[in-house]
């Protein structure tokens, strides 16, 4: 095994029977592969809960180790309006994996092209155990509604030739019509105990010392995101940290921003906050995360009644930020609203708007 | 992708190149999920939906067919009904006589005008290959028509008028309000109602027998209950439970709860209890933990609604406040709102309701 892999990748279980937690589910998935007539799958759960690992194990169970011989390819598509699109795909002889939301609102074109291609170029072969191929679509909760609707009938029409495995963090955004066409597999985050156990296990194979306290600290700070926990553990080992794992830079940056807001509620302060928000967006931090972390930091000094109002504002503006296409406006509007509530100088502040 | 596509021959290289068309002898039946396997083959197999079935039945007996509009919630048999009818009408000619366009196909104005027009103008005879008579018209099925733009719908209207002699149209949608009135007024409308629970139960019992699934009546009833009149959902769920547990293992209520994604009451009661303490910090922590269990936000809201409405812990006024927020939050969730923030907002509304 090449040793330059990150722990998070190096210790990814490859077989359903080797999965460390949700063992009953792993057995269930194994049963599922026994016959070829199972429905499409929708695997969902929080980040770092092991969805992808489970999917790969499942594919391996169905097709054998060949699914690990992956090729990376750039696929190109043409939209009806003659725009050229490119997207990265990972494929083996048995399956193909794409993240259609990489191409934004043109995701529909990509999905349709891939599915129809796979379904139509399929050749029958009796020697293989399964006579269908698998299309893995990741981040389906980010798919446009258009793309999701396009999947509906397509999923039914081509089901004999290809199975689709959808992967999502939250299924609230997946339209019910798709959910009812799939076997939905819920993958909850591992418990703190399970995270600790896995960390200790990896540490012992790597022959490094991981104290109980540090393992516990990592489990908590990673918010039970196993991938993040393993990255943290490896980093703390590399940097020789025994306790007090630092937060990620962007989280510290948001915290600083919150401090600016709490310290002074004024036009100047708002202007400098705006720069910070821009900085975060430019660095690829999703606005949903910015909203969430900022809200938490800002709520800390508030009592429940002011807090409730602030949550209400955040809920409104975060929702609007998804509707519109300039996230910065809505983040900034939320900050301004917060300043109003927080300083209690509503009248004076209304001049902002 | 080429790598993936060209590798249709898996393993054995000596086996037939391009044999897909010819060698019918070795063809084993394709394994398809139960929803497809048990899709009605004839209109007699369609459960309920009597009005549509009667009209199509008349047509199969030789009457003329009006343009049709089927509307209603998912999994009630809209697509199945028209496809089954078309197969009965045209027999082997089925493929030449219908044009099925759904949301996955390009359906802009241009396509509607050209593709549909070309299709309509093909001549069609009134005898089948097996010598039986069949109607001399063709059918254009526009499935999921509510996702067509208004402009495309308008273009369709003109095409529909021009091609009345040779072509019938069948529009299918969930929401009839999204179809422009000039189109709806040209069609005979049929509402597909959510299926009766007894009917679903009966169908599932039949499938259980065919597939050797062991499932007690109470368990099956629970499954039917969670399906909300959606046959597709019910069948998919039945198959999921059966396949996950393996052959010969009886399906339990717990299996059904897991597969349908029903949230355990404990988790929801906990949420309402935390709201009672009116402590924002504990509410935040609780929701974070709850999110890690990965239950669908929409499901959480649906069950919370049920709980609050039926609870004696809240006055009518409090219920009204909570209900209003529930509506807003549910709507925002489906449209991309953050689950954490929206559930927190709902919690705050419940706290406010406790404070009045
Ligand atoms: N009325 C019905 N009678 C029998 N089976 C049905 C009926 N409605 C739905 N089904 C089952 O559900 C599946 C989906 O039905 P479909 O006609 O595609 O629904 P939709 O109304 O969403 O188009 C079918 O494959 C069939 O197994
Ligand atoms: Mg349909």
TrEMBL record, chain A:
It comes from the Eukaryota. GO terms for biological process: DNA repair; DNA strand elongation involved in DNA replication. Its main location: nucleus. InterPro entries: DNA_pol3_clamp-load_cplx_C, DNA_Rep/Repair_Clamp_Loader, P-loop_NTPase. Keywords: DNA replication, Nucleus. It is found in: Nucleus. One of its GO terms (cellular component) is nucleus. CDD domains: AAA (cd00009). One of its GO terms (molecular function) is DNA clamp loader activity. Belongs to the activator 1 small subunits family. Subunit of the replication factor C (RFC) complex which acts during elongation of primed DNA templates by DNA polymerases delta and epsilon, and is necessary for ATP-dependent loading of proliferating cell nuclear antigen (PCNA) onto primed DNA. Subunit of the RFC complex, an heteropentameric complex consisting of a large subunit RFC1 and four small subunits RFC2, RFC3, RFC4 and RFC5; the RFC complex interacts with PCNA. Forms an heterotetrameric complex with RFC2, RFC4 and RFC5; this complex has ATPase activity but is not stimulated by PCNA. The heterotetramer of subunits RFC2, RFC3, RFC4 and RFC5 interacts with RAD17. Interacts with CNTD1; this interaction facilitates crossover formation. This is Replication factor C subunit 3. The lineage of its organism: Eukaryota, Metazoa, Ecdysozoa, Arthropoda, Hexapoda.
UniProtKB/TrEMBL annotation, chain B:
Residues 64-198 form the AAA+ ATPase domain. It is found in: Nucleus. One of its GO terms (cellular component) is Elg1 RFC-like complex. GO terms for molecular function: ATP binding; ATP hydrolysis activity; DNA binding; DNA clamp loader activity. It holds the Pfam family RCF1-5-like_lid. Belongs to the activator 1 small subunits family. This is Replication factor C subunit 2. It comes from Brassicogethes aeneus. The lineage of its organism: Eukaryota, Metazoa, Ecdysozoa, Arthropoda, Hexapoda.
